[in-house]
Amino acid sequence: MTDEEVLQIAVDMGKIFNDGDDEVARRLVAEDFIDHEAPEGSPRGPEAYANTARWMRSVWENARWEIVDSFAKGDKALLRLVFTGRHVTEFMGVPATGKEVRVQHLHVYRIADGKVAEHWAVRDDLELFRQIGAWTKPLKGAPKPVPTA
User: Fold this and answer.
1) How far from chain centre, in Å, is Cα 92?
2) Is the C or the N end of the chain the one with fewer CB within 10 Å?
3) How far apart are CA 79 and CA 66, in angstroms?
4) How far is CA 126 from CA 10, 48, 108, 129, 135, in A?
5) Nearest Cα to 13, choosing from 118, 122, 103?
6) Which residues have a Cβ under 8 Å from the Cβ of 140 and sit 6 or more positions away?
7) pLDDT confidence of residue 148
């Protein structure tokens, strides 16, 4: 596959999250897909990824991924994006706050045989928890604000 084809598959993964498109999950996620972001022992495959997206959409009203930057090389693609949404149900032990969040993520996808075989992510969870009021301690040298685009 070309770098452009690999990148397009990674970009299309956003349709699962942004639009709740289970058909995209069935078409693009390998049956033995591993989500390195998921807890140990979590289910694998397209349905598991679609379930994760559904859960996130239930926790974060109007949840969106907005791609800010992306590239692919070989069998991997990286998306730098901004995640937005309104906190409407419990998340990682924090009750719903109704607060809007805007945080950065990095997502890496490995593509094999035209499907996503693996996923890794780095999220700015500290900033997310600050925005929902679960972390109130000031930080020296805190990161710059999330880009607007």
Assistant:
1) 16
2) C
3) 10
4) 25, 26, 20, 5, 7
5) 118
6) none
7) 66
Considering the entire predicted model, what is its pTM?
0.88
- State the pairing for strand pair 100-112/115-123: antiparallel
Q: Is 61 exposed, middle or buried (0-12, 13-18, 19+ CB in 10 A)?
A: middle
The residue ranges of the chain whose pLDDT is under 50 are none
Q: Spell out the long-range contacts of 96-105 with Cβ–Cβ below 8 A and sequence spacing 24 or more.
A: 97/132, 97/133, 99/131, 99/132, 99/133, 100/131, 101/60, 101/128, 101/131, 101/132, 102/131, 102/146, 103/127, 103/128, 103/131, 103/146, 104/68, 104/80, 104/146, 104/147, 105/65, 105/79, 105/80, 105/81
